[in-house]
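Q: I'm writing a short explainer about Trifunctional enzyme subunit beta, mitochondrial for a general audience and would like to include a description of its predicted shape. Could you first generate the structure from this sequence?
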Amino acid sequence: LRGLLNRTSVPRDVVDYIVYGTVIQEVKTSNVAREAALGAGFSDKTPAHTVTMACISSNQAMTTGVGLIASGQCDIVVAGGVEFMSDVPIRHSRKMRKAMLSLNRAKTLGQKLSLISRIRPDYFAPELPAVAEFSTSETMGHSADRLAAAFAISRLEQDEYALRSHTLAKKAQDGGLLTDVVPFKVPGKDTVTKDNGIRPSSLEQMSKLKPAFVKPYGTVTAANSSFLTDGASAVLLMSEEKALAMGYKPKAYLRDFVYVSQDPKDQLLLGPTYATPKVLEKAGLTLADIDVFEFHEAFAGQILANLKAMDSDWFAQNYMGRKSKVGAPPLEKFNNWGGSLSLGHPFGATGCRLVITAAHRLKKEGGQYGLVAACAAGGQGHAMIVELYPQ
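A: Of course. Here's the predicted structure. Afterward I'll give you a sentence or two in plain language.
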């Protein structure tokens, strides 16, 4: 948030609303948007709320902001997302929680001693958070492995795509293209000035890694999966008229967007396939009109499965109720500055990174329209059309 204020010089008191996305909530800061806003020095008169929609939480934050502006409720909204993966809340077991709450209500020493005497060693086993579906109890990595198998995507194909992501991210970083990273001083450590998960390797090294989820025959590994990382993002949203009146030149228009959901068991990660044709139709565009594609890379297998599904008439007809396929985005326009596999995936923050990268790529590459898409836990998905502001 402070980085956004420094970059834009927007006065804190003109911001009407702040909305943030996050996934793994800390009880002490359950409305992290409000706490972060106060910490960044925004007016205590500025309302703020937090949304959660798995990996598309900051997408939801942005589109919520768009809705507030479009409905006339607000003129200026700050939207973003945050995830703190290196210190996730770890709970006591349910038995232990129940015992502790009962102990807190006990009035006499006898009652307290009686409750303490009932605590058994297994009560102390912690509940570790897992990236798993509540409805299916399946981890996202297992879903990615099954999806890759269903679409006949080999381990080599996944490793090749992951290597592409890291290679392109390194090239973009070395070329000074990733300009939106705000340096952050980690308490007790050095200042982080750039994404530090970009690690181009070799197919030979990647092939040595063991399957991470479906053992021993799975194809999803640590090398072709997005890694867990801390991160935060922020964007400044306002109407074109308001921006020009305040002396700002917009970067891009958020033209249109859709949210979709489907079966969380077999189609957990196919959100982009379902969302892309819908958002194109809403915006009156075709796949050929899109100059820049920015898709969230949860797993290399997930990306490649979506590309295959989008390019399949059979899948469109049998699963989507469509007469024909939408087509696969051409790789020469696809995630050209790297993606979540190489830049990392702080769950709640990724959506804003996708949108701003799309806007910057449009400017750099001379395009007009960008398409952002992402899958999310629960079998949900999102797609958005970004249009470059006339230069």
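A: For your explainer, you could say: The longest strand covers residues 252-261.
Q: Perfect, that's easy to follow.
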